[in-house]
Amino acid sequence: MAYVKIDDIDLYYEDKGSGLPIIFLHPPGMGHVVFHEQEKLAEHFRVIVFDMRGHGRSGLGSKDFSISLLANDLHHLMSELGIEKAVLLGYSSGGSVVQEFCIHHQEKVAGLILCGGFSEVSDMFLQAEFRIGKALVHKLDVLSWGIAKAHARTEAEFKMLRRYIVSTNPNLLEKFYEEGRRYVCTNKLSTLHVPFLHVTGERAFYFHRYQTIYKKYIPHSKLVRIDAAFHELPTKSSAELNHIVSKFVTSIELSHR
């Protein structure tokens, strides 16, 4: 187990492989274990996964929760690990954190990947997901079952994901859902000039409108939809996602040689 001290918390992380670093940021409740299939990318790159504050093995701390606070934690983590520049991948609401970080620390971002990410929550389906999640944070047995069931391909994976979700601090989880629902950075997207990739599932129809937004504000953005896939790409479409991420990160490496 490895930890870095950030203010009044110990932040848990795992660091594998070598080469250009890819740092993965998870959605509310899921912790680093949702990226267990992406750790295979450590064969070619430096892969870093971690539990954001209040999740899994990381401490909660006493600071008021915000997306900016999570982005600041990421900045400290990179500094502690001596990482000057990294590719950031945010899954779902984890994408809000990486966008916030990139807006303020673009010089530290080699590339930005959103896996089912969004710059605002402006459709009724995603709004409903956030409201349902927030309503169930004090019924973690129910919420954990739903999230784990949606992501798991096997009973073992279901148990692993669910066990991690129920370890999340409910009060922090409630704030994460609310802050994530309110987070908006659409008006700042045009300031981003890093390589940008948005991946979603062909069947995750309500994320398609966000790809339209990104293409409007970030003309150089690369947009990908995985055939016959829904939102749970890190687990349900791991092979396809890993291939797409590997190709994107390799192109960044080649452009800097």
TrEMBL record:
It comes from the Bacteria. Residues 21-127 form the AB hydrolase-1 domain. One of its GO terms (molecular function) is triacylglycerol lipase activity. Pfam families: Abhydrolase_1. InterPro entries: AB_hydrolase (IPR050471), AB_hydrolase_1 (IPR000073), AB_hydrolase_fold (IPR029058). SUPFAM superfamilies: alpha/beta-Hydrolases. One of its GO terms (biological process) is glycerolipid catabolic process. Gene3D superfamilies: alpha/beta hydrolase (3.40.50.1820). This is AB hydrolase-1 domain-containing protein. The lineage of its organism: Bacteria, Bacillati, Bacillota, Bacilli, Bacillales.
